[in-house]
Amino acid sequence: MSLGYLAEVVFLGTGATVPTLERFLPGILVRDRIGDAILLDSGEGVQLRLAQLGVSPSSIDVIAVTHEHGDHVNGLPGLLQSMYVGGRSRGLTIVAPASIAWFVSEALEAKEDRLGFKVDVIVAKGRGSLEVNRASGDTLTLYWFPVCHTVEAYGYSLEWKLRPRISLEKFEALGVKPGPWLRDLLERGEASLESIRVKLEDVIGRSGVTVKISYTGDTSPCDDYVESIRGSRVLIHDSTFHSELEVEARGKGHSTSKEAAEKALEAGAKLLVLTHISSRYRGFEARRLLEESRKVFSNTLLSRDLMRVTLGPLEHHPRS
Fold this sequence. Notes:
- This protein is an alpha/beta fold.
- It folds into two domains: about 5-165 and about 210-310, 4-Layer Sandwich (Metallo-beta-lactamase, Chain A); about 165-205, no CATH class.
- Helix content is about 30%, strand content about 30%.
- The protein contains 13 helices and 17 strands.
- It has helices spanning about 45-55, 70-75, 75-85, 100-105, 110-115, 170-175, 180-190, 195, 200-205, 225-230, 245-250, 255-265, 285-295, and strands spanning about 5-15, 25-30, 35-40, 60-65, 90-95, 120-125, 130-135, 140-145, 155-160, 165, 205, 210-215, 235-240, 270-275, 300, 310, 315-320.
- Helix 13 links the parallel strand 14 (about 270-275) and strand 15.
- Helix 12 packs parallel to helix 13 (about 285-295).
- The two termini are about 20 Å apart.
C-alpha cells in the first residue's frame, strides 16, 4: 500500500455494548505508507466494515485488543477464520491481556496446524512495547499501558519515529545537481554524508519527527494513563456518555465527553476523537457529546463508522 501521507486511521466501529445500524462495535484500523496495518480492537461487524473498505483481513499485521468485554473481541473469531479461508500464510501478532490470550490460544485454538499460519500472542502486562516495523531508518512501535476500567484493560499508542530527510530542492539551491543516483539513494533512505559530500545542515529538509496516535479503549478518567498519551497527535478517547450521566459512567468504568476533553487538554493532544458512543445517542443526538467536549477542547471530532483521519508528518486532517 502506498499513501500520499504518513498514515490513516479508519473507524470501523464506534458504538458501545450493542451494535446499531448506525454504529458497529469497536474497531479501528491504522495503516501507514510503508504498508503496516494494525487493528485496535475487533468488535462485532469488523469484517463487514473491512469489506466495505475493500481491505482484506489477511493484510492486517497486528491486532491489539484492549480488554475482555465482548463488544471489543467478539469479531475476532470470524476474522481469524476469514484469514484461514483466504489462505493466509504469514504470521499474525495479537497483543492482549492475559484473559484474551487464553481465549485466543485455548477457546479459538488459534494454532498454526489448524489455521495454516502462526499466531504470536503477546500478553500485555503493565507497560510494554512491540516494534512493528523498521524501514529505511523509520520505525513504528506499538506501546501498551493500563487504563481504569471494570476489568484489566489497556490502551495503546502507535508511534512513528521518522528519520531526518534530505531535500533535493536544497541541493539544487547550492548548485549541486543531484542526478538519478542520488534520487535513488534518497528514495531508499541510503544517502549518507560520505556519499554526497555536503554539510547535513545545508541540505536537511526535515529533522527527525515523532508522530503518535493513542487509543484509550474503555476507561474512566484517571491519572494512570496520562503520561502514556501525552503529546499524541491524535487521541481517541472513550466518550460513552454525556456528563449528565457522569455517575453511571463512573459505575461502568467509562468517561463522559467532557472528561475526555479534559484528558486531551491535560495530555497536550493535538486532536481528540470521541468514540465508544452509547446507543442511547442516536443520529443528531450524538452531537451533544461533541458540543460538550468542544467547550473544553475545541479541536474535537465525533467519530462515526467509516470516518477516516489522515496524518502527514506535520499535520492531520479528517476525511469523510
